[in-house]
Amino acid sequence: MKNPLLAPELHEMVTQGRHDALKEFCEDGNPAVIAELLSALDPAEVRSVLLLCDPILQAEIFSFLEYELQVGLLSILKRRELTRILTNMPPDDRADLFKRMPEEMSDDLMPALAHAEREDIRKLSSYREGTAGAVMTSDYATLEKDLTATQAILHLRKVAPDKETIYSAYVVDRQRRLLGSVSLQDLIVARKNETVADIMQENPVLVRTSDDQEEAAGKIQKYDLLAIPVVNDEDSLVGIVTYDDAIDIMTQEHTEDIEKMMAITGSHETAAYIKTSVWKHFSNRAIWVTILAILGLISGTIVEKYETLLVQFTVLAAFMPMLAGAGGNTGSQAATLVIRALALKEIQPKDALLVLAKEARIALLLGLLLGGLAFARVIFFGHSSDAAPLHLVGLAIAIALGLQVITATLLGAILPIIAARFRLDPAVIASPALSTIVDISGLLLYFTTATLILGI
Amino acid sequence: MKNPLLAPELHEMVTQGRHDALKEFCEDGNPAVIAELLSALDPAEVRSVLLLCDPILQAEIFSFLEYELQVGLLSILKRRELTRILTNMPPDDRADLFKRMPEEMSDDLMPALAHAEREDIRKLSSYREGTAGAVMTSDYATLEKDLTATQAILHLRKVAPDKETIYSAYVVDRQRRLLGSVSLQDLIVARKNETVADIMQENPVLVRTSDDQEEAAGKIQKYDLLAIPVVNDEDSLVGIVTYDDAIDIMTQEHTEDIEKMMAITGSHETAAYIKTSVWKHFSNRAIWVTILAILGLISGTIVEKYETLLVQFTVLAAFMPMLAGAGGNTGSQAATLVIRALALKEIQPKDALLVLAKEARIALLLGLLLGGLAFARVIFFGHSSDAAPLHLVGLAIAIALGLQVITATLLGAILPIIAARFRLDPAVIASPALSTIVDISGLLLYFTTATLILGI
Question: Per the CB 3.0–4.6 Å rule, which of A75, A284, B149, B346 could disulfide with B190?
Answer without folding.
Answer: B149
